[in-house]
Write a structure and sequence with these properties.
5-stranded mixed β-sheet, 2,3-Dihydroxybiphenyl 1,2-Dioxygenase, domain 1, 2 domains, 18% helix, single chain
Length: 147
C-alpha cells in the first residue's frame, strides 16, 4: 500500500549580509541553529545557476520543529542587488511573520540588536497586536501577539 503525501514546505531562504548577525537576530526571536555549513562545488551551481558559487548557510528551526529558515551569505559570486529597502508593494518582496507571546518584550530584545519598528505597533481587530520591524541588516520581519 502506498500513501500520497501532500506538499510540505521544508524551508524559506533569505540571503543575508552577515550570517553571524542574522543567526543572533533569529535566535533572539526563538529559532535555534540546526546546521551551519559551506555549500560549494559544481553540483551547487547546477542547482542555482551560479557557477563557482561559495555560500555559507545556516539552517534555523522554529521551536515546534516544523518550519525552517535558511540563511545564506554568498562569498562567491558577490551579491548583485539589494532589495531589502524596497517598499512592501514591490513584486517578489519578502517578509517573514512570527507569532510571539509578548510583543513589547520581544521588541525590547530586538532593539538591543539594532532592530527598529517600521512605523508603529497596531491593534488588528482586537485579535492581534502587530508590527513590522527591520533588523539591523534591513530584513523585514513581522511580529504578532495574539490578544
Amino acid at each position: 500500500m502506498t500513501t500520497k503525501k501532500g506538499v510540505i514546505m521544508h524551508n524559506m531562504g533569505i540571503v543575508v549580509e552577515s550570517l553571524d548577525d542574522a543567526i543572533a537576530f533569529f535566535k533572539e526571536i526563538g529559532l535555534s541553529l540546526e546546521d551551519r555549513q559551506m555549500i560549494e562545488g559544481e553540483w551547487a551551481g547546477r542547482v542555482t545557476g551560479l557557477k563557482g558559487q561559495k555560500v555559507e548557510i545556516a539552517m534555523m528551526v522554529t521551536p515546534d520543529g516544523h518550519s525552517r529558515l535558511e540563511l545564506s551569505q554568498f562569498l562567491k559570486p558577490k551579491v548583485v542587488s539589494d532589495h531589502r529597502l524596497a517598499p512592501v508593494n514591490a513584486l517578489g518582496y519578502l517578509r517573514l511573520m512570527f507569532t510571539v507571546e509578548n510583543l513589547d518584550h520581544m521588541l525590547g530584545k530586538l532593539e538591543k540588536l539594532g532592530a527598529r519598528v517600521v512605523d508603529e505597533v497596531v491593534n488588528y481587530e482586537n485579535v492581534y497586536r502587530l508590527c513590522y520591524i527591520r533588523s539591523a541588516d534591513g530584513l523585514l520581519v513581522g511580529l504578532a501577539e495574539e490578544l
